[in-house]
Structure prediction request, 1092 residues.
Amino acid sequence: MKKIAKLLFEAKILKDIPRSGYHFLGVGKESVAEHSFSTTFIAYVMSELESDVDALKLISMCLVHDLAEARIGDLNTVHKQYLTADEDRALADTTRGLAFGNSLKELVREYNEGLTTEAKLAHDADQLALILELKDLVDIGYQPPNSWLSNVMERVKTKTGREIAAAIMDTRRDEWWLDVTT
Amino acid sequence: MKKIAKLLFEAKILKDIPRSGYHFLGVGKESVAEHSFSTTFIAYVMSELESDVDALKLISMCLVHDLAEARIGDLNTVHKQYLTADEDRALADTTRGLAFGNSLKELVREYNEGLTTEAKLAHDADQLALILELKDLVDIGYQPPNSWLSNVMERVKTKTGREIAAAIMDTRRDEWWLDVTT
Amino acid sequence: MKKIAKLLFEAKILKDIPRSGYHFLGVGKESVAEHSFSTTFIAYVMSELESDVDALKLISMCLVHDLAEARIGDLNTVHKQYLTADEDRALADTTRGLAFGNSLKELVREYNEGLTTEAKLAHDADQLALILELKDLVDIGYQPPNSWLSNVMERVKTKTGREIAAAIMDTRRDEWWLDVTT
Amino acid sequence: MKKIAKLLFEAKILKDIPRSGYHFLGVGKESVAEHSFSTTFIAYVMSELESDVDALKLISMCLVHDLAEARIGDLNTVHKQYLTADEDRALADTTRGLAFGNSLKELVREYNEGLTTEAKLAHDADQLALILELKDLVDIGYQPPNSWLSNVMERVKTKTGREIAAAIMDTRRDEWWLDVTT
Amino acid sequence: MKKIAKLLFEAKILKDIPRSGYHFLGVGKESVAEHSFSTTFIAYVMSELESDVDALKLISMCLVHDLAEARIGDLNTVHKQYLTADEDRALADTTRGLAFGNSLKELVREYNEGLTTEAKLAHDADQLALILELKDLVDIGYQPPNSWLSNVMERVKTKTGREIAAAIMDTRRDEWWLDVTT
Amino acid sequence: MKKIAKLLFEAKILKDIPRSGYHFLGVGKESVAEHSFSTTFIAYVMSELESDVDALKLISMCLVHDLAEARIGDLNTVHKQYLTADEDRALADTTRGLAFGNSLKELVREYNEGLTTEAKLAHDADQLALILELKDLVDIGYQPPNSWLSNVMERVKTKTGREIAAAIMDTRRDEWWLDVTT
Prediction:
C-alpha cells in the first residue's frame, strides 16, 4: 500500500505544475491536473457520443496521459525542439512494484502510439481541452489565441472531435449560464 | 452539438472555483477541477485494487461528482449549516437537451445516495483526496491540518479506502522522487 | 471580550473569500473584504452628498452588509437560482452573546428589506462598487464587462446613485492621477 | 460629479496595493483596502463598546485613514527611516474641488494628530487589525509573527483596545466556526 | 562575512517587491528583482554593441541601480510627487562596514547623476526594460500601454538605446520562437 | 537590431518561468529571472571579494547562465533523470545572426565546463542563491528546506563560496533591517 501512497503523491504534484504553453501564449493559466481533468471530462462526453468505443479505456487513458509530467515537467512545442524525454523510464520508475503497473503503462503506450480508436479520441480530447481555453480567452478580448486556434483546430482528427471543436468555436463562454439568469 | 459545447464550458469553470475549505483551514489551495482530478485518479487506482467493482461507473462517478458546483459553488461544512442546495434542479438545467443527460444525472444521484459499492468507494476517494492534501501540508510544517485529520480519517468507510488512508499517513510527501535522486 | 475576538476573526475571513461573480465574468478579482471597503467608501461619499440621511447608519450598514458571507460564502446570480440561504440563522450564530448583536442584525435586516433611504442608498453603493470595477476593466480592454454594464446600471435606483454611476461611466480609470504627472 | 468619480477610482486602487510589511515579515498578504476594511470593522465594534464616542467620526476616520496611500504607497517602519511623505499635499490634490474635501482632510488630520478619543481608538483599531493577522499566522504555524507581536501589542493604548488585543491573543483563529460544526 | 550575508538577504527582498507602476497601468506584474534582471541583461547587450564603453561598470551599475528599493520601496511617477527619499542614507546603511561599500555607492551615485556614457546607457536600459513590457502587453491586446509608450520612448536618449527601442516596437513578442516551430 | 529585440523578448520570458524545484520542495516560489538576478548579484559581491578574478566575465556568466531555459524550461534534479537537453542547439538558435553570439555561447560553455576560476565561482553563486532561499524559508518555520540544505551546502566548492554559505546559515533573514528600526 506504501507504493500506492507514493503514486498518489506523485499524481498530486500535477496540481503544482503550470502548463508551460501559456507564457508563450501570453495569457491564460492552468495546472497539468486541471488540464487532465478537462481532457478526461471531454473523453467522458465523447464516450457517450460514440457507440463503438471502450469507454473505460478512453477515460482512463486521458486521466493518466500526462502522469509522466510529474517527473518530466510540462513540455510545449518549443521545448520539444531541444529536449528528448525518456517517458518509458519515467513510467517504469512510477509503476515499479505496482500490481497494475503494466496496465497503466500500456494505457500510456497506446495513447502515445495513437493507432486505436480510443487513442485517436483521447488525442482529440487533449486538443479540445486547449481549444476550449483558447476560445474562452478570445471571448474575453485577448489577441494571441486567434493566431493559435487554426493550428490547434487542424490537429483534431476524428469526426466527433471535429464536430465538438466546431461547436466550441460557435459558442460563447458564458452561454451556458445566461439561460438561467435571464 | 451546441449543447455539448455549453456543457464543456460549464465543466471548465470548475478550474476557476477555489475549494472553500482551505481558507477555513488557513493553508492550502486547490481548484474544484484539481480536486476532481485527484478524486478521479484515486478512483482509478481503487478500481485496479478491487476485483468486483464496475470500474467505468466508479471513475465516471468521481469525474462528475462535483459538476453541480459550477452552478452552486463549493460548499464546505460551515456553509452547509445555512444553505440548502437544489442540486437536482442544477443538474436538470445542466443536462437539459443532452442525449446522455439521464445517465449523467443517475451517476450523481447514485453517488449522493451512497449505497452501492461504487458510491461508497467514490465517497472514500473524495475524502482520500483531502487526506492527501492535509498530509502534504503537515509534512511542510503547518499546524491546522493536524486537528482536521482525525475527523477526515473517520469519514473513510471501505476497507480499501482505510488501507490507502493509513498508507498516506505513513508516507512522506517527497518519498516518491527521493528514490531516483539518491 | 472573547466573543468580540471571535467576531473579528469571522470578519477577517472575508479577505480570503473571492467574489464569485468574476470567474463568470472571465476577468477581474476582488475579495469580499475589498468589495465591502469599496461599498462603505462609496456610502461615506454619498452621506456627504445627501443632506437628509443618517450617515452613521448608511456607512455601518454597508460595512456589515456582507458579513454573513463568512458563513454562507459569496453567492452570485447563478448560485441564487439553486441555493436558499438562511442568512437570519447565520447572523444569529454570529451575534449570539454579543451585547450589540441586535443592533448589528437590525442593520442587515434593514438593508435586506431595502425600504429606508439609507437602505436604498446602500444598495446603490453596492452596485456602484461593481460598476467601478467593470468600467475599470473596460478601460483596460476587456470585452465581457460591456455586456454586463447595462444590467448593473439599471439596478441603481436613487438620484444620487444614478448621477455617480453616470459620472463613473464618463471617467477614465486613470484620470485621477494623470493631473499630477503632466 | 466627475470629481466624485475620480475620487472613487483613486480609493479603488487601494485594492491593488499590497501592504509592504508582509514581505519584511516573510508571510501573510493583504491589500491596503482589506486592511482598511478590517480597521473600520474594528472601529465599528469599538463604537458599540464605548459609550462616549462619536461613532460616525471614529468609523469614517478609519475608513479614510490610509486614503493617501493611493498616491504615496504603503510605507512600513523601514521605509519611514528614509522617506519623507507630504501627506498634506497628497490629500490636497485628492480633495481639490470636492465639496466635502475639508471634512475629509480634517478626519485624516485628527487621526494623524492622535489627540481625541476617536483618534486614539482609531490608532488602536489600526494596530488591532495587524494583531489579528499576526495571531492568525501564529496559529497556522509561522515563526516570524511571534517576534513582532510584543512590539505591536505595546502600541495599543486605550483600555478597550488593550482588552480586545488580549482577547485576540487568547482566541484561536478558527474558534468562531468550530461551534457550529461540532 | 556576516555583513555579506545581510547584504544578500537585503537584495533578496527585491523579489518580493512588486513594481508599483503596474497597478497604475492596470495590467502587468513584475518584481523589482525581475526588472533588475531585465535591465542588466539589456545593459549586457548594449555593452556588446558599444565599442567605447566600460562594460563591467555598465552592467554592475544596472545590477545595483534599484538596490535602495529594499529600504525605500518602489516609487513611481505619482509617488515621487509627494515623497522625498534619502537614498544616500539608505545606501549608507546598506553598505556600512562593507569593504566594497564605497565602490557600490559610487556606482549608484554615478547612475543617479547620469552624466557618463555608462550612466546614460544604464538609464536607457532601465527604460527599454519597461518598453519591452509595454510592447508585450500591447501584443496581448491591452489598451493602457498604448498611451504610456510615447512618453517612455521619449525618455530614451542614446543612439543605441533609440535603435533598440525602435526594434522592440517593430517586433512581435512571440517572433523569437515562431521560427523554430514552423 | 530586429535580432536584438527578439533576444530581449526571449530573455524576458524567464520572468514567466517558475523554478520547478519549489513544488518538489513544497514551499517557496521564484521565477528564473529572479534566480538569475540573485545569482548575478552574488557574483558581483564575489568579484569584489576575490582579487584575481575577471569580474566582467564572472558577472556576465551568471547573468546568462540560465538563458537557455527560455527554450528548454527549468529542469530540476528529478527532470534531469529522464530528459536530455540539447542546450548547444538552443543557444545556437538563440544567437543565430547575432554579432556577439559566439561570445555569449562561449560564456555558457565555460560555465557548463566548470573549469576556470570564474566558472567555479559562478556555480557557487548559483548554489548560494538557493541556500539563501532555503535559509529564508527555514527562518519562517518550514520543515522541508532543512533536509535539502546539507546537500546543497556540499555543492559549494570555492573557499569564498563556502565562507558566504556559512555566513548565510548564521544570519537571520531579517537581521539586515532590524538594525535600523530598533
About this structure: Chains D and A do not touch (no CB pair under 8 Å). Chain D has a mean pLDDT of 97.
